[in-house]
Amino acid sequence: MSDLQIKLLQDMPIFGAIREDVLRYLLEQTRMVEVAAGDFFYHEGEQGHSLYVLESGTVSILKHWHEHELELGRFGPGDCFGEMSLLDPNPRSASVRAVDACVAIEIGNVELYGLFKYDLEQFTLIQMNISRELCRRLRITGDMLFKARMGEMAESMGINLRSA
Predict the structure, then answer these.
(1) Vertex 107: Cα angle to 64 and 122 (nearest 5)
(2) What is the pLDDT, as a whole number, of residue 4?
(3) What gap in Å lies between CA 93 and CA 90, rounded to an integer?
(4) Strands 80-81, 68-75: parallel, antiparallel or unpaired by DSSP?
(5) Is domain 3-156 annotated with CATH 3.30.70.100?
């Protein structure tokens, strides 16, 4: 654990307003994961149990659709992924592949349960922050879906939105 890791977490929305001693405690419980370029952190459909905080490298978020692998987005240092698995028992909704060599902090359910026992208030704040981040991402996805549906509707009505 280093001061750089503490700073990385403090700059993230999920760990916003979390005390330094709590972040140090959490980092003592976690493990570092190194993933080579082209390898996967996890695959869509697998059972999840942890989130990852990307310390270095870039990852691609992938979804399978009709035998195609589609990139939904990319994350870089300071971003996290996999957080849904900490709140939702369903399988992973997408795959995450390292675009280049990556180093990440893995924070699992077990580590969060330890935090629950260590400091309930700070645990609760992290849970609320995760929920806020998921809501933020859901709003973005909802906007994208709306725009896609409006484009389909305009196309079916013969309206060219590009020239409007």
Answers:
(1) 125
(2) 87
(3) 8
(4) unpaired
(5) no
